[in-house]
Amino acid sequence: MIPGNKDTRDGIIFSLPFLVVYLAFMIYPLLSGLYISFFKWDILSTASFVGLDNYRTLFSDEKFYSSLWHTLQFVLMTTPTLLIAGFVMALAITGTSPWKGIMENVFFFPYIFSMTVVSTLWAWLMQKDWGIFNQVLITIGQNPVSWLTNEKLAMWSVALTTLWWTAGFNMVLFGAGIKQIPKEIYESASIDGATYLQRVRHITIPLVSSTTVLCLILQIIASFNVFGQVYVMTGGGPHGTTRVLVQYIYETGFKFFKMGYSAAMSYILFLIILVVSILQYTLLGRKEDA
Amino acid sequence: MKKQILLVALVAILASGMLFAQGAAETKAEGPIEITFWSLFTGGDGEFFDAMVKEFNASQSAIVMKNDMVKFDNYYTKLTTALAAKTAPDVVVVHQGNLLNYVPSGSLLALDSYVDATTLADFQQAPLDACRFDGKLYSLPFDVHPIVMYYNKDLMAKAGITKVPQSAQEFIEASQKVKQVTGKWGMAIDNTTGVYKAYTLARLFMSMLAQQGGSLLNADATAPAFNNAYGEAALKWLQDLVHVYKVNPTELDYDAAMNTFKLGEAAFYFNGVWATGTLEKTAGLNFGAAPLPAIMGGEAAWAGSHTLAIPVQKNQDPKRVEAAMTFIKWMTSHGEMWAKAGHIPTRKSVAQKSEMKALPYRADYAAAAAFALPTPRTAAWEEIYGTLSDKLEFAVTKNQNPKAALADMEQTVKNIIASY
């Protein structure tokens, strides 16, 4: 130990700039959100304590369930597709193709745009009467598709947009994972006569599993929090069939002035994400050790 | 690298300095008073509003108005949080229907002592009264914007229709004729959520209930009042246009409806008066505008109203309130400029101005302001309005049994009201 150097004191001092911000902008709002969820409050007037009423209402609110279900649909649609797309892209950019540099840029490119830009762009592409997608379909003699105004398709369209937008991020994570696998393993497998697909299946996939778990957890959290794309592209329509939970939370809070109820729903969503993440982490993590 | 960090830090310091400087300027006594305003006018009406603010600033030297535009979708979120933190600008625009969200909590300043009787007498009674709560005036109406009818004159001529349809039956007949002769749509009533909900359905539904002598909610806005023959007639007409007579497209969202009419693909179109400015700019569109016809017999039309209000501040500076009032009075008394966007001005003196009379279309539907429906006074309104739009969208696009649809809507509205 260096004389005059107090590790604990210095440690605290060096962490302070971060800790202060973290406490003020993460921990405090988190706790005050929980506090608000026990009140009936319209932001502007004095709040009145209602105990667990908000939570009780929530469990009999049909709109809460339907919004949660729509969110879940989105999670189920996007999580596997985004993982697979990211992985396949990562394979492409870590392979031997002379185009891999260009591909890496092309695949990652959409991710740099903001949500609003991407959603607005795709909303125009998918517009029923004048959008490019339907114009192309008409030219090749197909019937136009109601991408965003048909209840069966609307969520898929939003999911497709999200796939285009964020798959590049998973590609970067998987790419990093794949690059860490020692070349020798592949070489010896090749010498033993393993084909490309066999190498991917028996070497790459098992050895990037920790990256897969990371991607899965990040992806599920991100998908549960979906809001922007839906809000911009479908507005929650047609007739509320794509209204997701975060949208409902936003509307109850800022449009209907039910801050307490809105906070209570946020906490339920928080709990769901927490439980799912812990489950994934323990179940998948254990499998890896075995 | 180090230099860059230094540069960033320097910029940050300068920027934060400017923030404080702005605060300091507020108390400065010399020179013109600078007051701030947030507007939600981003669509076609935004440019007309900006032009008015510019003209106001040029017309006098005592007050400088700084206008900050906020996207309509986020406007009320931003306003609400600013009001809660008491950092709202000096003047804000609030829809008459949204006033009830802010008045009971005392977030808006009562204006009675700041407006003289002569000015008040110049306002039309109905929109002015709509800004009063418990006898106190909380804002001044800037405009009234009822739902009106637009019709394509060329399509009507081609189809051989000489009279603008008025009744439910006439609309069906005229629309069928348009479809048979020209192959275009008769009507373009939006019925699907896109960027906006299918509010047009809710607006027409409300209007048509009132046209039969009914109303959406009971008199004190505590219970739904539409699950009856009136509601059935109104909903059935909206459904039949799409499913029985097939003269209105299905899965039509707000923007698509507007474009359908703009491109001359539909003969009759219903929207708020704010569409006038945009339609006028459409080359090759020969259209007319009229107050909402008495589709169900009587005269009534949904209407909104932009009103100008002054938020309560932590330390309310009387000078700034006075400046804000001057601005509000100037804006309302120059309504002929605002009418260019399509809206109907609220001051009697404006209606007399020659500039106002010279504007096309506006005179055709100005009468609609007389039978504009007030927004029901309940804190639950925003949720009722949005939810009903969704339910009507479902009922119309899915051709749901009207009785079942109304019963479901009634129960939903009851639950919503009970939750406030």
From TrEMBL, chain A:
It is a multi-pass membrane protein. This is L-arabinose transport system permease protein AraP. GO terms for cellular component: plasma membrane. It is found in: Cell membrane. The keyword Membrane applies. GO terms for biological process: transmembrane transport. It holds the Pfam family BPD_transp_1. Residues 68-280 form the ABC transmembrane type-1 domain. The chain crosses the membrane at residues 12-31, 74-94, 106-125, 153-176, 207-227, 264-284.
TrEMBL record, chain B:
Transmembrane segments: none annotated. GO terms for molecular function: maltose binding. One of its GO terms (biological process) is maltose transport. Keywords: Signal, Transport. GO terms for cellular component: ATP-binding cassette (ABC) transporter complex, substrate-binding subunit-containing. It holds the Pfam family SBP_bac_8. CDD domains: PBP2_UgpB (cd14748). Belongs to the bacterial solute-binding protein 1 family. PANTHER family: MALTOSE-BINDING PERIPLASMIC PROTEIN (PTHR30061), MALTOSE_MALTODEXTRIN-BINDING PERIPLASMIC PROTEIN (PTHR30061:SF50). This is Putative arabinose-binding protein.
